[in-house]
Amino acid sequence: MEKVVIFGNSSFAQLVYYYLLNDSVFDIMGFTVDSEYIKEDQFCNLPVFPYEKIEEQYPPSEYKMFIAIGYSVVNTIRAQKYHDAKKKGYQLISYIGSKVNYWPDLKIGENCFIHENPTIQPFVEIGNNVIINGSSYIAHDSFIKDHCYIAGSACIGGMVTIEPYCFVGMNTTIKDHVIIRKMGIIGQGSVVNSDTDEKGVYSGNPAKKIYHNSLKVKI
C-alpha cells in the first residue's frame, strides 16, 4: 500500500481520512499542518507534525501527500499548499470514490478528490487540485481546469470549460458550451446560460453578475 500523509486538521481533512481509510488502497500515516495551526499532537488518532519540517518525518521519497483544504479565497489557499508540496518533492495523490460513475478515458490530475455518486461522461478532462462533490453531473467534452471546487448536485453541460480557481455552488446548472472564467463564483441554485467574466460572482436564474471581485467575497 502507498503511504500517504494528509495536510490539514479541519472537518474536510477528517472526511478525506475517512474516505481514504474505507475506500482506497492508501495507507494513511499521519497529518501535517503549519505549526501555528497545530491544536493537538493527534488528529483522528494519528500523529500531527509541523509542515515546516515534514520532510524529516515523512520524506517525499517514501511518502505521498494529499492537500485537504477547502475552497477558501476562491481555492487559492489550497493551490498555494499544492504548489508548495510539489516544491518539497511530494507526489500528490488523487481519489476517485468507488461509487463514482465514470468512463475509463477520464483524464484527471493530481490532488483531486471526487466524492460518491457523480456521473462523469466520456471525454471529460479534470485538471489538478480539483474537488467534486457528490451527485454532480459532468457532461461529455467538458474541461474543469486546475484548483476548482464543484459543490454537490451541480449539473455541468457538454463542452463546458471551467477555468482555474472557480467555485460552482450546489444545484447549479451550466448550459452547454459555456465558459466560466478564471476565479469565478457561481452561487447555489444558479442557472448559467452564457459565458461569465473573470472574478465575477453570479447568482440567480438566469444567473447575473452581482459582484465584480470574487477575491473579496466570503463563500
From TrEMBL:
Keyword Cell division listed: no
Keywords annotated in UniProt: Transferase
Domain PglD N-terminal positions: 3-81
Ranges of residues in domain Mannose-1-phosphate guanyltransferase C-terminal: 104-194
One Gene Ontology MF term: transferase activity
Record keyword Transferase present: yes
Coiled-coil positions: none
Highest taxon in the source lineage: Archaea
Listed name of the protein: Transferase hexapeptide repeat
Originating organism: Methanospirillum hungatei JF-1 (strain ATCC 27890 / DSM 864 / NBRC 100397 / JF-1)
